[in-house]
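Annex B. Sample input.
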Amino acid sequence: MAALEKFLQAVSDVVWGPPLLVFLLSTGADKVQAMLKKVLDAFVNLSAPAAREVSASDSEVDAINDDIFQQVKVAVARDPSLFETLLQVLHIARHLERIADHATNIAEDLIYMIEGEIVRHRTDGQKNTVVRPPGR
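Annex B, continued. Sample output.
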């Protein structure tokens, strides 16, 4: 994460005003790292509750990614010369969001493996309902 922190410092030196963009990117990276740790722990311990926590965290990372996109739009509108630097921020945010999606997929597979419950392709409100394959 040291390389990401260096990049964030460079971005914060370029972006004026409150470093909201840097804060959002750093927060997103921390959440994704926590998701990865939790899903690996859930896998090792065969813990469905921990896997469910990972699955629930995905929407937080999605929201941070959306906030970063909005902040980049505003910053580029103010100063188009920042486009290339901020494009890199968008790439990082997108990749972090994809890592979170992969952690969520692993968590959902883990829930199925432990409980036989399919939680993929459902909205957050539906993830608490049980859908079991026929014969279970």
